[in-house]
Design brief:
Blueprint: H1 9-15, H2 19-25, H3 41-48, H4 52-59
Length: 63
Amino acid sequence: MALSKDSTILEVLQENPEAGAIFARFGMGCVGCAISRGETIEEAAAAHGIPIADLMSALGIPA
C-alpha cells in the first residue's frame, strides 16, 4: 500500500509499527487514540499544530 497524507494513522501503524515512536516524538498519542482509525496523517498533524511536511519526512512518506 502506498501511504500518503490522506492515509489514516491506523494504516500507517499497520504498514510500519515503528511509526508509533515517530508519532510519540512529535507529542502525538496516536497509538492508543481511538480517533486514529479514521483520522488522516494530515488531519492529525493539523490538530496537533505540526507542519505536515515535517511529519511526512520523519515517517519517510513522500509529500
